[in-house]
Request: fold
Amino acid sequence: MCLAIQTQDLCRRFGDRLVVDQVSMRVPRHAIYGFLGRNGAGKTTTLRILLGLLRADGGRALVDGIDVATDRLAAARRIGALLEAQGFYVNLSGEANLDLTRRLLGCPTREVARVLALVELDAHARRRVGDYSLGMRQRLGLARALLGAPPVLVLDEPTNGLDPEGMADMRRLLRELPGRAGVTVLLSSHLLGEIEQVATHVGILSKGRLVMEGELGALKASLAADIRIEADDLARAAGVARTHGFEVDTTNDALVARLAPGADPRPHAAALNRALCAAGVAVHALQPGLPSLERLYSAVSHAPAAMEATP
Ligand SMILES: Nc1ncnc2c1ncn2[C@@H]1O[C@H](COP(=O)(O)OP(=O)(O)OP(=O)(O)O)[C@@H](O)[C@H]1O
Reply:
């Protein structure tokens, strides 16, 4: 199967620092792939290599099956990007701004209307970009990335700085893009909650290395749920939980009962609650914790980032 994006042992140095270290990523077609990592983990560098803006020092990067190093222009035609700097002419309309890029790309005139409709800006096409909200500008950036119908989109922090409503709009648009525009989306972000709501797949970079990758649902299913208990006497509560076959950890203010991967925490929480109450423990709170992207992320990215590890 031809992947939308594939890298093999991709490496990039800055001076003697290896900031992308043998990264082999696989982004299936029509995925929304959340690309995660701490500041300095190497995400932007990887994206810039994929976009043909930076040369790799080793390995390969393929976009829609095309090698970025050996066929840069053909690869560039298959990938659209929304990066941090938008660079719109604020005195021109959204439509006029898009038309400038359309001409550079040599696309037909109707492309502008197509992408404006995809990001739901058609009603505001003739307004000055200077009068757009930040959310509308981000959507215009997304429209520009969609010009020429590239099969792959790379978006760097697309919800950065947006208000909750703008974030919700962008999330919805992103979720719908693979179905409506037939694209694959590579989404770089620090916001785990945002990624969790839109991504079908994730890849996590730590110190330049890809430390986890896969389908988000399957990765989360591999994690165990737990139950967090607050009670008047944690030592006694721990004893009761152990007697009932739970493995427990105690923190300063709570007890955490660990469950086997795949176990539904709800019946276990009910059983534990009954046992604690029967033993006379006063339970103040009992909270089942479901596997989350945040827990996946913290399981693999505790190590300090490359930048911080280098003197
Ligand atoms: N042009 C450059 N010259 C030297 N070092 C660079 C250059 N670009 C990036 N770096 C360094 O490479 C490392 C990885 O940077 P990169 O921007 O790829 O990380 P990132 O994961 O995108 O971080 P952030 O989330 O903060 O954008 C950092 O230590 C950064 O300082």
User: Anything to note?
Assistant: Residues 95 and 125 are 5 Å apart (CA to CA). The first strand starts at residue 5 and ends at 14. DSSP finds twelve helices and 15 strands in the chain. The pocket of adenosine-5'-triphosphate is lined by residues 14, 19, 37, 39-45, 306-307 (CB under 6 Å).
